[in-house]
Amino acid sequence: MKFDNSEVRLTYRSELVEELRAVGSKTVGELELLLPNSLGFCWGVDRALAMVEAARREHGDRPMWLISSIIHNPRVNADLREQGIGFLRGRHAIKGAWEQLNPNDVVIVPAFSATVEDMTYLRQRGVTVVDTTCPWVIKPHKRTLKYLKEGFTTIIHGTVGHEETAATCSLIESEGGHYVVVYSIEEAEVLAGYLEGVVDANYLRDNLREGSFSPGISADRDLIRLGVINQTTMLASESRAIGDRLKNALEKRDGAAKLEDNFRDFDTICRATQDNQDAAAAVAALKPDVYLVVGGYDSSNTKNLARVGRRLGVPAYHIEGPHCVGEQLEHRHRESGEILVETAWLPAKRPLKVAFTAGASTPDALLGEVIDSLVDYVGKIPTKAE
Ligand code: SF4
Fold first, then answer.
1. CATH topology of 6-42+272-378 equal to that of 43-133?
2. Architecture of domain 43-133 in this structure
3. Residue bearing the CA closest to ligand 1, atom 2
4. Which of 72, 190, 377, 384 has a Cα at 20 to 30 A from 164?
5. Tens of pLDDT along 89-106?
6. What is the sign of the dihedral through the CA atoms of 369, 371, 374 and 377?
7. pTM > 0.85: yes or no
8. If one looks up domain 136-265 in CATH, what number appears?
9. How confident is the model at residue 384 (pLDDT cuts 50, 70, 90)?
10. Residues 146 and 171 sit within 8 Å (Cβ to Cβ)
11. Is 164 part of the annotated catalytic residue set?
12. Please, are residues 98 and 117 in contact by the beta-carbon 8 Å criterion?
């Protein structure tokens, strides 16, 4: 079924972003503004929001709910709340609503999917489910089921607790399989150390995050045949490095002849994530003085866009919106996840080259406001009327 996203696109449109997207860069006063050729709303987000619009038209008179959020962007979620869509979990949850769901309710499953337990519960309550799960998110689901059938434990390059990875983990658990989640190449190194016999199972357990292991997993029994997948929005270059490192560890442990039997690797990074990261890297190569990466602080693909910039030696900051930009800069630290406030963050040199990009769940309008904010702060841009 095709969904018309034109209404959503119009709601979140920014003329400034459209212009910059078309030309790539623009000099305004002493600022050179740069924009990658791929950024912002992805196909899956467009589709999810269009499905919500369609559901509102179809079931407008019935109570409508989101499990937690439709996508990881506070602005978009706030807009949906204003339209009367309630939240069942999280900071804006309506107390008791989850327990009281009934067949008159409509529940929207987000683009990043839901756990098997939640889907079962929704069916039991008899609600109407509007499932906006992105088809790209289904890809790791299908691959992990294949691994399971072939007797492999799944290694997920992902974030423990992220809804997409939680859904994948619950699927594996529900089918009686096992998984290990590794967040980074450093965590993969710990797992590789165990596979190579350099560290023991206790060290492995103590040095990965809580929730990284499937319940009941035995390192001796379940880390023999491994299949790697990725949460769709991870840093693609890191996913490849993790796959290679684990392959290398198994080769050391079992010998090259056994690799075919004991190792699988399948790239499940989504196209939009890959395109946005490649485009962000191309702009980072132009060595901007500052790179502002706009998106919800809980947005995985936005976090990784900021890491792309940093890895290429560019001062990249993950910010949530226009309120973050001014004399002080509010941003999320790329590794610790802390929200920090920096002073004297903008280099004094002029002209100043500033690049911008935005996560797959960031509306153009929000990015446009960030650019306007910076322009206002620097004070060198004529107003629209001029
Ligand atoms: S970022 Fe990728 S997986 Fe996520 S909604 Fe967009 S297209 Fe789908």
1. no
2. 3-Layer(aba) Sandwich (3.40)
3. 270
4. 190
5. 999 999 999 999 999 999
6. negative
7. yes
8. 3.40.1010.20
9. very low
10. no
11. yes
12. no
